[in-house]
Write a structure and sequence with these properties.
Layout lengths: L1 E15 L2 E11 L15 H13 L4 H18 L5 E3 L5 E3 L2 H11 L4 H18 L6 H19 L2 H15 L15
Antiparallel strand pairs: 1-2, 3-4
Helix pairs in contact: 1-2, 2-4, 2-5, 3-4, 4-5
Protein name: DUF4145 domain-containing protein
InterPro entries: DUF4145
Pfam family, one: DUF4145
Length: 187
C-alpha cells in the first residue's frame, strides 16, 4: 500500500514541545488491488477482470475507475449478445449507445429487467466519470455495488434453485425420495 502521509500543526492529536500536531494518511494504491466484488464462480471472468482493473486505479483516479466499471457493463452486454451496432436508413453501420444497449437488453430479456435497471444506474455513474465530473471513491463503490447485484440477478441461480427445491418438497409433502431398489433385478 502506498499513499500520502501528512503532519499538520495545530490539528490537536499529539503534543510536541507545546505544539499540537495531527497526522493523516491517505491510501492511493494497493498491490494487489483490493477486490471490489465477491469472487463468484458464476460471474464471467472478463467482467471480473475489468473490475480488477477498476480497483487498481480506484484511489488514484476514481473517475477513470468508474469508466472501467462502465466498460464491464459493455462486456456483460456483449456476453448476452446485445448488438453493438445497427444499419441505419442510409445503409451505414452505426454504433448503439450503452444506454440503448441496456434498453435492448431489458426488452429482449425481460427476466433480467431488474438487472437492466441497475446497469442503467451504473452507466450514469460511468458517464459522470467520463464527462469531467469529479467522482469520489464512494461514488464508484456505489456503482460497483449496483453492478454486483445486477451480476447476481443475472448469473447467480442459487435463489431459483432453492425455490425449485422448496416446490418439490412442498409438492411431495416432504423430501422426495428416489426409488432405492429396482424391481426383479431390472436397472
Amino acid at each position: 500500500m502506498t499513499g500520502e502521509f501528512r503532519i499538520r500543526e495545530g490539528a490537536g492529536y499529539n503534543e510536541y514541545n507545546g505544539i499540537l500536531y495531527g497526522f493523516s494518511y491517505q491510501a492511493k494504491c494497493f498491490v494487489p488491488a483490493l477486490p471490489l466484488i465477491r469472487e463468484g464462480d458464476s460471474f464471467p471472468q472478463t467482467v471480473k477482470d475489468l473490475l480488477v482493473a477498476a480497483s487498481a486505479i480506484l484511489y488514484l483516479d476514481p473517475s477513470s475507475a468508474a469508466n472501467r466499471v462502465r466498460a464491464a457493463i459493455e462486456e456483460l452486454l456483449d456476453l448476452h449478445r446485445v448488438p453493438r451496432t445497427f444499419i441505419s436508413k442510409k445503409h451505414k453501420r452505426v454504433r448503439y449507445t450503452a444506454h440503448k444497449r441496456i434498453e435492448l437488453f431489458k426488452e429482449r430479456k425481460p427476466k433480467f429487467a431488474d438487472a437492466a435497471d441497475l446497469l442503467m444506474a451504473v452507466k450514469w455513474i460511468g458517464n459522470d466519470g467520463s464527462h469531467g465530473n469529479e467522482l469520489g471513491v464512494g461514488d464508484v463503490l456505489d456503482g460497483v455495488e449496483l453492478l454486483n447485484h445486477a451480476l447476481e440477478l443475472t448469473y447467480d441461480t442459487s435463489a431459483a434453485d432453492l425455490r425449485k427445491r422448496a416446490a418439490a418438497i412442498n409438492k411431495h409433502g416432504g423430501i422426495p425420495r428416489k426409488r432405492a431398489a429396482t424391481k426383479a433385478g431390472r436397472p
